[in-house]
Task: structure prediction
Amino acid sequence: MTQNVNDWLNAHGDYLYRFALARLRDPHQAEDAVQETMLAAIKNNSFEGESSARTWLTGILKHKIIDLQRKQIREQPLSDLIDLDASDSSMDDFFDKSGHWIDRPQEWDMPESALEQKQFLGILSECMDKLPAKLKAIFMMRDVHELENENICKELDITTTNAWVMLYRARMGLRKCLELNWVTG
Amino acid sequence: MLTCKQASQLISQSLDRPLSWSSRLQLRFHLVICDACTRFKQQLNQLRSAIQRVTLHTESDSTITLSKEAKARIASAIDSKHH
Ligand SMILES: [Zn+2]
Result:
């Protein structure tokens, strides 16, 4: 069995690591996720050979990634999570007292050439990494894993309202960051 | 009448849940007269597809690999749990 796992690690380790890194955006956490996946693969060897080993391992990895994201969010002090009323002052940067945009959203020039595309994705990556950890994690759960909101709430033990507010904040932060850093047309 | 602030919240929520009939109607009404919120809505769609592109990009970047050291750490973690 251990032999098997070492073969898997050699054959699929790099792929699993990239898959995890793309979603966790942290090399240490991505390595942990791959390790946890391998340990789970040994412990619960339900691999039937019907699907490829890679598909099977990736399925395990997805669960491990969500576990890590959940931990990341839950370990945040609770007070950070409670302060979630979208009408509070944290939105003062975006709207004036009467609810109008302070800086009206601009039309984005979406990248066309390969080079522009690469620059754009680089800026977007940096913007994501600037988000507070818990907003980044919930945003990744929703917009990358495409977990249903209900499942996110169950995983995180938060109300649907809290989830909407956190997602709203994450998206507002990202689009602002992009607007500041990506030259608009 | 919705304010832009309220409209932007509904636009974001519409990505996460079906809006009520009346919210949908109010939002549609607002978007007809408000370019800024219409652009915001477009931005959120662009953002979502861009995020998925970033993910795919990292996932298929073969220059990113587990280091030898990382592989050794993982192999030894496996050994220590199974001997
Ligand atoms: Zn508006």
Remarks:
- The helical segments of chain A are 2-24, 27-43, 53-74, 78-82, 114-130, 133-144, 149-156, 160-181.
- Chain A has two domains: 2-74, 78-181.
- Residues B 4, 7, 30, 34, 36-37 surround zinc ion (CB under 6 Å).
- Chain A is about 70% helix and 0% strand.
